[in-house]
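Complex 423.
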Amino acid sequence: MFEWKPFSDKQIRVLSWWLPRSPHHKLDGIICDGSIRSGKTVCMGFSYVLWAMHSFDGCNFAIAGKTVGSVRRNVTSDLTSMLTGAGFKVRELVSRGCIDVTRGAVTNRFYLFGGKDESSAALIQGVTLAGVLFDEAALMPKSFVEQAAARCSVKGAKLWFNCNPEGPTHWFKREWIDKAAEKRMLRLHFTMEDNLSLSPSTRERYERMYTGVFYDRFILGRWSAADGLIYDMFDRSRHVLHSLPALDERAPVYISCDYGTLNPCVFLMWKRTVSGRWICVKEYYYSGRESGIQKTDEEYAGDLGQFIGGEAVRSVIVDPSAASFIECLRRHGLPVMTAKNDVMSGIGLVSSLLKEERIGFMDCCERTVGEFGMYIWDKKAADRGEDAPLKQNDHAMDAVRYFANTVLAPGRKVGTSIIGRVI
Ligand SMILES: Nc1ncnc2c1ncn2[C@@H]1O[C@H](COP(=O)(O)OP(=O)(O)OP(=O)(O)O)[C@@H](O)[C@H]1O
Ligand SMILES: [Mg+2]
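Predicted structure with adenosine-5'-triphosphate bound:
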């Protein structure tokens, strides 16, 4: 059973804005944006169903997330328990993708949609809704949100949005947050202080996890631009080592690889120290373009064999798009793993690993160390409201990210959002 803790003032505003005695009850909706774990979803989900049950009977509503799976994980599993605890009857009709909520003679139906699920866009076209709750709205395609909002044709319908911030030119910021008054929306900005159930130690743990633009967005709740150097926390005095620390001989050895024929091909070898830090102990960097000679997959496989030397390598983690090279390495009997390639969650993770000094680089890894000073956000992508690194001086950076994302990613959220729970 869900156990409520005291509500913060902001949560009380979310719970009560639609009540007739509230000055905001005539507005067309509510937007709660801000920090992760700040208590947005939990009070919005509950308030949404209370409002629906108070204002309508026999109507259809939607609860939308990035995918139907994330709606279940982030919204409806706790919500069902809250509603049951508050005396509602809740019946999930799994095959129809909806939940019926009943109290006394009143029943309403809540359809679950995923903004990124192909089928949802088509399904939502056919229904008439009295309300939509968009959980993590900024992670959904704009077209889906517009289509779902356009289905709200029942009189008195309202839209409910919550999300973590993205870049300042993201479509949700421009279309909904900046135009909240024009669109007759109540906008509330949340920070972790608005969640009274978070212990100081949990809050500190989240604060330690993020750095740079991710700290601004997920901890401070700001719509900050991903601008300039991506790894601005990289510091030669902290991250570049001149002598190898004592290694944990029982720890596995990994190679991570970014493959290219005309573009550079990079191999990085990773070993763990007795204190648990992962060190990139050596690099291989070959550029077909710089040298004027392209190598074949077989030649690269030979170079990789030499690079490995006599080491017992647990896995060679390779860029998933390098299908022919992966095949070639398998033919040579190498233990290949395809890399997890989510760019934003990978960059967020590498940033935290650098901040916490959980990864380091031997000074012989010159190209990799050099790229840390050149790897920047793509300004043109930012102007379009997207986050992306500039595709330049990024090959060793991709190999670092593949290692971190594939071997070191814990079950945690990064942006988008982010590592694990969503990210
Ligand atoms: N009043 C409360 N009583 C009990 N638990 C609460 C309360 N408010 C928040 N929580 C708990 O705090 C955690 C974070 O809340 P919630 O998921 O609503 O935050 P969020 O702002 O939606 O976070 P994110 O941006 O990461 O999705 C959840 O485990 C939630 O159950
Ligand atoms: Mg949430």
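The pocket of magnesium ion (ligand 2) is lined by residues 40-41, 74, 135, 162 (CB under 6 Å).
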